[in-house]
Design goal:
The protein has 1330 residues and is mainly α. It is built from 49 helices and 23 strands. Helix 42 crosses helix 44 and helix 46 (1206-1235) crosses helix 47 (1254-1270). The protein is globular.
Amino acid sequence: MSLLRVCAFAKCLSRRSLFEKCAVRVSFADSCRRSVSERNGAVRRISVTPLQLQRKNVSFLFPETEDTKKRVLEQSQLLDVLEARIQQLQSDVVLDVRHAKVQFVKAPPYGRGTSSDRGPRGSPQEKTDIPKSGHTVTKGASKSQPSRWIEKLTQEKKNKLKKQQRLQQKIQTKMKDKPTTKTTGSKGNLMSPGTTHKTISTAAKKSRRSMKLSEEISAAVSSKSTSTAATVAAGTTALIQKAAKRKQKGSKKEVFFEEGQEQTDATDRADELAQVEELERRLNQQVSQRTASSSPERLQAARDETANGDMNQCIRSYLEACVFVGDIDRAHHFLLSQHRVRSRRKHLNTDVYNIMMRVWAKKGTLNQIGRVFILLEEAGLKPNLGSFFAALECMGRKVECSPKVISRCLNQMEEDSLSVDDLFSQCAFRKDERDMLLKAIHVVKPDFQPSDSQQTSHFCPSLVQDYYAQRADHTYPKLDFTQEELQERFKCQLNVEQACTVTIDSVEAAKPVTENMAKMRELLAEQRAQWQKILLQALRESKMILANTNTKDYRLNLYPYLCLLEDREYVDIMIQSVANMPPSGESLKILASDLGNRVYTKYTVRQKQENQMVEKMASIYNSYTDLLAKDTKVYNVLPREHWVKLEMKQSSGPSLQGGETSWPYLVTLELGTYLVDLMVKNLKINSDILNPAYSRKLIPILYHMYTFRSTRQIGFIKPHPILTQMQQEAMETKLTFDSYVMPMLCPPVPWTSVKFGAYVLSPAKLMRAVDGATQHEQLLEKCENLSAVLDSLNQLGNCAWKINKPLLDIIISIFNDRGSDKLDIPPPLSEAPKIPHFNPQDPTYTASEKAHMKKEVIIAKKKCSEMHSLRMDALYKLSIAHHMRDEIFWFPHNMDFRGRTYPCPPYFNHLGSDVTRAILVFAEGKPLGPKGLDWLKIHLVNLTGLKKRSSLQGRLEYANTVMEDILDSADNPLNGKKWWMNADEPWQALGCCMEIANAVRSPNPTQFVSHFPVHQDGSCNGLQHYAALGRDVIGATSVNLMPCDVPQDVYSGVAQQVEEFRARDAENGLKIAQVLEGFISRKVVKQTVMTVVYGVTRYGGRLQIEKRLKEIDEFPKNYVWDASHYLVRLVFSGLKEMFTGTREIQDWLTESARLISKSGHTVQWVTPLGLPIIQPYHRTRSQVLKSTIQHITLQINHDTKQSPDTVKQKNAFPPNFIHSLDSTHMMLTALHCYSAGLTFVSVHDCFWTHALTVDTMNKVCREQFVALHSQPILQELSNFLLHKYCTRLPTEAKNKKYQEYRRLMLLLANVPQTGDFDLQRVKESTYFFS
């Protein structure tokens, strides 16, 4: 027993020392409350027996008499402080404040002390009272020394009394002639800010919550004075404080308050306060309604989801990996190790325990599931639907399971407000899980059938209510394929995605094979065969080491992740990454992330195969083709709706949606880093493989080194020059890509939810985000209805494409020759500048010559690296296009966090450069009709960049005058007059020339079937949205919202205004204005005008103008900086005059974002189509990933636990908000074009369709713009922001936070005033989109 006693003493001593070192700063009221509770606790502990105390590891102190006296004296002083503080609270806040009686019990001299934080007998002792805010009380304090509590209280009383007297004197002096009203229940504030509501009892807190917020504001403001009207006093006090602040800042001006001015200001303050109170009242009512409608279970689930998200995701993915590879013991031990330690248990939620429940359910071991339920209870968590689903599935698998057990389980669900129908609608099933669940339920409810009610909200944005409700005139388009053809295409796509990779011929394969090329290809093939064997052996050895370490440790281990695929598949991924590595090397982080993502993609495909999802997917897709095929009946439903109905009909078997946990970025990166380390350590080559004269030794083919990116040092993986030389000389004819980077061979799976859509098996995200950012996905999952957004993405993805083969052949011929800078076809590396070689130790070079040579080497290396990147990018695009030349294909779409849409395949798509756009045409052709040929000609003139200020008729006439050049370009593109080469978009212009030539030479041009997309581009679309928001007549006219005979060019208008400012300054003798004479053009200001609307700063604008001025050879280079600085100021001034409404709205958005982020929140809003948007800009934090090859420092700026980045939040809000509006306009146009039977795709604010349907698309585009801006967009934004950020009154109503809160509320409520522009005029504007 003595040994136990010693152990208990030692343990308590260590706890005590830790407590003393980690004294936290708590508020004064918290300290008081803790002191009271400790005294009460002391009384309770007196009655505990010594044995019980010993079991609790409580050590005993034996205080000396002097220490006891001092302690009792300090306790009595502390009681005085408590009493005084409680009186202050009672006088300051008119609430019932209760306090516990503090009892003192004199400790006996031996062994029965009241403190649990003392050391053993004879050890040095310290006071155990918790001091205020980190102050410590030393042992040697004198008896006569007054307590710091008493000192602080006395000083505080004096200061407050003086302030109160001064304030009253000033108010009485100023207000002696004014009528006063008596304020009741308000005394002088005798306490410091920050302690107002801290020691209120539970009953008081409840009563405070039930008070109206407007009453709280009134009480807070009225407490500033004692006998005058609250609003007048508040106004006067604020004025005095403002004056004092000005003096403190060193202002030289004296502030004098006149009686009349004071009355005006006080009245303004009174009005302001009334406005705040009214806003608070309105918001409070709406919030109470919302709170009543939201269930506590949902709120709890939301809290669980956000807490410890990254670590929780790591644990879930680890457990799922263990279960997938069949290592159940590892998963079980890991979960227990996490559960047993409280500090680790906080990372667990119910879903983590459910993973193990599902394992035991498959095995039919109900007792193990019962144990997991006990663990849940120990962790303080409640079972959710997944928990009961696992239990019921297990009961369904057990033949002899008692009906009573099943009934108890169902009754427990009912008690927890969970319905049986929710099990079938919200749980993700694998294999036969659904059937087993239904089997168990049928034991006690034989007639039960899951409800077929679709779990979607009835809420629908007002913009699209009619679209979904009134479909009588909708004619949804069909694809030009039979149902059998589409089903065959699906099989091809399924095979591609199951393989996960696609190997295609390179367009360089057309070159003749030389002897050296053949030799290098043979050498590389031999080396790769050896590397595969070496990597296979190294991987197996490393897995054996990992399998035997950390088996029962709580730390995460990479071993399960290395068992998910066959060993050979990991090796193939590594070999492929070597083949794709650029000569200049690759960042370790990027390379590792790429490797990890490839493993994850293969793992998810394998999961779907294991869970028998492939068969069900094939069955539903084959039925889905009935909607799209041309030889089937016409449906009046959208693709998403049709798919959901089919899925509900075929409900048995596995679920297609959800169920997989996406890997956190850290897991992906760590796994990739491990594979890179294997490659660097094991891949070697003979040093004499290219030159037998060298001595033979094995050298690594990859080197791990460090380089600088800006000011940061990063890890880098660089291939050996021998490997680079072999790869370049081999010019291999095969390229291997991941399947998800290729266009799809069948129409994409429609997006039906946040987690399901696009590819058949490959994972795809609905919303793109930075690696590791999860806030976007969480917002989307909570969203009520995303039908309109999903339907618009499906419409864009359903557009079929094909290759313009004649144009592709011309481009490939130039690519395989020597490229062309003029035509944007990058030359081969043989055309790169030679890197100069020199010996830095050579004494013949001077220091300046060496510096010059080094600079030339750096420039040459940079140029080579850029040329290689551009060449490989073009090679990938052209090779994919060549591979798809005889195919019809589709691009699945997703979006960024602002709602802007993008094709999922990254290399080859219609959002690419002029080259890739030119070789893409619609698979479906439509006759030109009566106006189609004219639209083709106008489109050609638009592509040339000529006649931008001309009318449509003027452009058509110009096209007719140059018809000879158009036909020559089509017939002899490389040997004729080459008119097309001078166009802004030369390759698209050439394609258009060929289409026009074919049309005019056809027997009847109106019947000519055209596949060529015609574009209609918005006229400075960002400013169009601003002008419409502000109903700004001048701005609307400048950006073609107003009908005009000829298009208005906002860039020329700004340039003209800047020129007027410059001429005026030049007359006044300003030197830089005189230098700029004749140099101000549309081109100089265009980029800055275009990007001002998207938040470019003066600094960024100056750099843009500087770049343009440097391009003018005649402009004196020594004036570039001064001129750019001067011009950017004039551009901003000109825009401010032309777009007054725009600037006001932009400033309102910026200031709103600044105040929101300063209050600790990220800016969030909802688009008119119901898409939730959040800005993911937070303060950057560093996280170190430790690996064997290198410690990688991650700069994470999307962590929601970090404070918002105020600068990024405020600067990004205006452009992001406008981007969300232009994406909404595009989605509305897409939906209505689809219902009208049109082919429609977009490149943000550039809309594409057939020449036949341009007029129809233009009509829809204008109607939807008017419909969008007829909504009270800014008012709805204001209401949303007020509800989101202004419904929680800061606890301390008189501190700085409250002032900011009030400023934010007033700012958000005061929406910028709008002008008199009539939106309906947009429908008549020819050049709105043209």
